[in-house]
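#dry-run=false #mode=assembly
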Amino acid sequence: DGGITQSPKYLFRKEGQNVTLSCEQNLNHDAMYWYRQDPGQGLRLIYYSQIVNDFQKGDIAEGYSVSREKKESFPLTVTSAQKNPTAFYLCASSMVGARNTIYFGEGSWLTVV
Amino acid sequence: AQSVAQPEDQVNVAEGNPLTVKCTYSVSGNPYLFWYVQYPNRGLQFLLKYITGDNLVKGSYGFEAEFNKSQTSFHLKKPSALVSDSALYFCAVSSTGGGNKLTFGTGTQLKVEL
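#status=ok
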């Protein structure tokens, strides 16, 4: 199947721990993104990458980190510095260019306990 | 900076009636407009987009949207709603001046009742 795979679907974290969310795509897309979704706030961009070994901060990058070592993979680490990490996290990918459609994975729920 | 407004948190419509979900936008440069649908605990599914050309765009599942440049709007419509259309709908915009970044509205919950 072609698409974007996020794992795990549900993740629980203790305060003070770092966690990494996985995102893999086999669509041959150059650009990849991480969004955070909170109720009533829509989606907010955390980080994005348009090419391997390069990425840019989005609107809410504080407390998060990413890497882009392979075209297919764009993992997101939620660090202990993120004050309110409980949220639904969505990975997405697209061809580079503002007119190209961005496609989304199924999302990962992170809960801090 | 680009932005999107979805003025209605929730829209209720009876099955078989037409539905409209409203969206207005603000960008510098040419806008590229998108509609997505989200079912509970799922990712976003692409419905349709406006890039250029005909102002009426047709998309998946019988949805369509009309681009109105003078009113900076891109309302989503469907002639006859189904109960299965009940979901959360997001409007989004990117632009020639904004790179490849999509900016989303806050979403509109559509509820179609029998």
